[in-house]
Amino acid sequence: MVTPGGLVVLTDRRSASGPLIEVVRKAVRGGAAWVILRERDLSYGERAALATGLRSVVPDHRLIIAGPDPLGGTAVHLSGTDQLPDGTTLTGRSWHGTEDLSGVDYVTVSPVYPTLSKPGYGPALGATGAAEMRAPVPWLALGGIGTAARAAECALAGAAGIAVMGALMRSPDPERTARELSSAFRSAAGPGICPEGAAAALASSQLSAAGSQGCPEGAGTAPGAGRGFGGEVW
pLDDT tens digits, residue range 207-218? Predict the structure, then answer.
C-alpha cells in the first residue's frame, strides 16, 4: 500500500493566486507528490470536471478526492463523519484522536500550527503534540505549515508528509514555495528517522542527534488515544 507522503497539496480555489489547475501544476512541478481535491461546495458536474483537469497535471493515481465519492478515481479523504465507501483502494481521514479509523490507510492531524485558513479549529498541537497523538497509521501534519523550518519540524516529529493549503494556494510562486517546503521536509526526514525518537528530540531540542539515529526494533507510531477537540474536521 502506497500512502501519501512528502508534500501534499490541498486545493482551495477561492484563495488560489491563479486558476486552480495552473496553481496545482506549478506546485507539482516544484515537488508536490500528492493532491487532495476539496471544493466540496461545487456541483457534482463541476467537481468531476475539475478532478479530470487535475488528473492531467498530477502524477498518476496521486489525486485524492475529499469526500466518499472518488469522482472516477479510487482514492478518497474522509471527514470525521463521512461513511467509509466501497471500492476505493486508498482511504484517508481527518483525525483528531477520536474518529473511527477502521479501514483507513492514513490520516491528517491538525492543526499543527496556528493557521489563517482554518481559524478556530482548536489549539495548535505543535509537531511534538501531533506525534504524541500516536496515530495508528501514517499521518500527515496539517495546518500552518508555511515555512521550511516548520516542514522540517514535522518530518523530525515522524510525519509521513505535510498537507499544505494556504501557503501554496496564496503563493505568488507556487513552484518555488513547493520546492522550499518539499526540500526541507525531505532533508529533515532522511533515512533512519524514528517517529517517537524524533518527537522526543524535538521536545529536548536535540534535533541533530535525532537525525542520525536509527529506529529501534518495533518503534513507530503506536495506536493510542490522542488529543482530540470538537468541531468540524478539515
Answer: 333 333 333 333
